[in-house]
Amino acid sequence: MKEQQKESKKQFMESLSIEINNCKKCDLWKTRNKPLVGDGSINAEILVIGESPGYYEDLQGKAFVGEAGKILDNLLGLVNLKRKGIYITNVLKCHPPRNHNPNRQEIDSCIGYLYKQIDIIKPKIILTLGKFASKEIFDKFNLDFTRISELRGRVFEAETNFGKMKIIPLYHPAVACYHNEMIGELKKDFEKLGLLMKN
Ligand code: URA
Ligand code: SF4
Question: In which domain, by residue range, is 111 found?
């Protein structure tokens, strides 16, 4: 990628970040500490999309710094990926109190930021973590969302205004915090990602 291109990506993301930090489009601004814009490299080929910042993410404004983050790091390690080699963000940029599921109004208010991030980053692969992120991304790219248990680990193709992109829905790593046996399922899906990255 040309230096000039990298510089303009950086500028777009910085102005988006200012917008998000001042955003009051849904009620979550009232209870948030720090919005979580996203972390990692905006020049990465892989974009990881979670649901919403949790308690610790809200305190730090950083993605996946809690328990689910440890699981995510282990999974990324399986395919030799580091945080610096990907970009991570969420459907909602502000923490929903008591981690409530994102509601329609919150998603509709916030999703435009994610779409802009996709346009800036222009990833080759999007990993969607859990049903909320998967459904929103499937809808956006005209794919038919059914159930995460049916779709997870499968590779879907989408046409974008910057070319072809792959989408892989995955279980949310937080499920492995509550259900230990799920870690094996997540590992299986990450191994598929590893194969895809080699090809
Ligand atoms: N869970 C998410 O979906 N996103 C985070 O950033 C942290 C936990
Ligand atoms: Fe704005 Fe999104 Fe935060 Fe709602 S969740 S206040 S839309 S940045």
Answer: 2-198
Q: Which long-range contacts (CB under 8 A, 24 or more apart) does 79-86 make?
A: 79/190, 79/191, 79/193, 79/194, 79/197, 80/194, 81/46, 83/39, 83/40, 84/40, 84/41, 85/40, 85/41, 85/44, 85/46, 86/40, 86/41, 86/44, 86/46, 86/47, 86/48
Counting as low any pLDDT under 70, the low residues of the chain are none
Ligand number with the minimum distance to the CA of 54:
1
Give me the pLDDT at residue 169, please. 97
Whole-structure pTM value: 0.97
Q: What is residue 94's predicted lDDT score, i.e. its pLDDT?
A: 98
CB of 148 sitting under 6 A from ligand 1: no
Count the domains in the chain: 1
